[in-house]
Amino acid sequence: MTNFHFAKVIAGVWPTLAKETVLSKIINMVDVFKISLWGGFDDNNKKYIDTLMKLDNSKTIMLETRGEDIRVKNVMDIKLKDKQIIEIEYSEYAQENNQKIFADATFLGTLKPGQLIIFEQSNITVKVKSTKEDIAVGEVVHGWDLIQYDRMFFPDYDTEIPFFSEREKKDILRGLEYGVHVIAASLVRSKNDIFEIKEFLTANNAEKMKIFAKIETIEAVKNIDEFIESADGIILVMEKITEYLKDYKITEEDIIKKCKLEGKPIAITFGGSKTKEKPTTITEQEVKQYSQMCIDCYMLNTLLKEDETIEVITETSKYLEKHELSIKDCCDKEEFYKRNENYFVRDYIIYNAYRITNEADIKAMVSFTENGYTSSRLSSLSPKVPVIAFTKVDETYRYINMLWGVRGYKISQSFSYENLKRVGKEMIRIIFKGNISLDDKIIIVQANEIIKDEKTGMINGLELYKFKNI
After folding, report:
1. What does the DSSP assignment read for 354-410?
2. CATH at 116
3. What per-residue confidence (pLDDT) applies to 157?
4. Rounded to two decimals, what is the model's pTM?
């Protein structure tokens, strides 16, 4: 089988990646394209979406919110060395200067000695030594080239900046207008941040849009259980939270298992590391490690140059093909269908569909879903066979294409059970590139609390077919 991969790739859209010549080379290896709102939603973002949809309109567009967004205001890169002393000064406006750092942080003069300042994309840390008025004087802990307009973080410091600003609301509305499909909520601290975005989306007729919570603050780590419950998916920003996890005695594997038990997809970000030889976004060892943990998505953030972009995504795709099925059990399978009495019937059906794939040499599963529940729960068990999922809802369609082992297809409102079998058979043939025998076995899954779905004619339960009999 050469036309399917189980784990999904999310690529950050930067100007170098937005060229049609680049996109055309990588589009078959990327499932989701992420647009960040750090610079607002402008005409370039619309151009990115138009280009992507022109090349392949099945791709999912993720819009990453700002959250507590503080930026470097320098329009020139600055070379910083380890132990260098550097001034960071407040400025509301862009500055053409490479001798000191300017930032739109009004509180620089209130920082205490020892406070860390992290520059996200540049992978630079500065420790505050002293302050005066609107200036903080710091020592570079880890030096490199500071990138213009980089995002800044102040660990454990309350900046009192609103999580969801009016500017961000306007940008999200523009994103909705031009075809964004999924929201990644940056710098969340509590479930109230998720609810605030959900209320805003509902008020603007986008209540079915899925929201992923980016776990990158100490508060988010502390409240991880409520995020797993309230969000539609989790994004772990490991380069920011590793120390926080140690503080709360939580491991990333603990979080992944909790997500799997709840049927929630989980992504890991890879901002990359920099050496004098070559920038590295993701390594084969990391892919091997996270494949064993059943990660749904690999989010590649640092893609700076055209050649590097193509090379990184190509290498990642090769690593996934090599390691993605080297998975171990990611959750207690029996606990899986006993957790929620309200969904016991459908969870038991889903669990048995997974179990049969291991016991009867099943080649693929076919299912129908309205809100993505069946697909996400099947996916969370990390089956080693493709799940072909049909839905009538566009937001669900975009969401299920971010799930481990699932390939979604959008269907018409008049789609019936007979259509599902006929079209499902063709999709399986395409995925396997015809390399499937007439006697290979296929499962059709319908997992609802009702006996029969009047909309599709499907009966609640499992059906086992030989491929030739579908």
Report:
1. HHHHHHTTEEEEEEE-SSSHHHHHHHHT--SS-EEEEES-HHHHHHHTTSTTEEEEE
2. 2.40.33.10
3. 85
4. 0.84
